[in-house]
Design brief:
44% helix, alpha+beta
């Protein structure tokens, strides 16, 4: 009887370890990435902006562990106009992990990096369009949260 209880306890402990491992390795990053996407989508943008590259988020270990999300919008008035609009029309608490950058800002951890585009024909067309329109009109809405 005692051996049966011990076996049940060992099986329960193993199950808890596996559940914890799955949570830390799969579920927690998924939840963090969805939180990043929701934070970016909640940012109020000027009416004349158009989504150019959809919101994406990923967990990264480049330089340190963090979650990073990005969305690229096109605005004729440029990056500074969008930055000022975002700062004036959004709650500062919502903007805690949000940054507004020009697409041509150097960034080695970027999801949508201009210099890494061009690996396929669609990306090459995107690069050409961005250069033709002017890089300062493409604005990156960035969410970065350190663990």
């Amino acid at each position: 009887m005692r051996e049966k209880k011990l076996l049940i306890a060992v099986i329960a402990l193993c199950a808890l370890i596996i559940i914890g491992w799955v949570y830390v390795g799969v579920i927690a990053p998924y939840i963090s990435c969805r939180r990043a996407e929701r934070a970016i989508e909640a940012v109020k943008l000027p009416e004349d902006t158009q989504v150019f590259l959809k919101t994406r988020a990923e967990q990264s270990e480049v330089n340190w562990e963090h979650v990073r999300g990005e969305k690229v919008v096109f605005c004729e008035n440029g990056t500074e106009y969008v930055r000022l609009f975002v700062e004036e029309n959004n709650d500062p608490e919502k903007l805690k992990y949000i940054r507004v950058w020009s697409m041509d800002t150097p960034d080695d951890m970027s999801i949508y990096a201009y210099d890494r585009m061009g690996s396929n024909p669609v990306d090459k067309e995107t690069q050409k369009k961005m250069l033709f329109d002017g890089m300062d009109k493409y604005v990156k809405i960035l969410y970065q949260y350190p663990y």
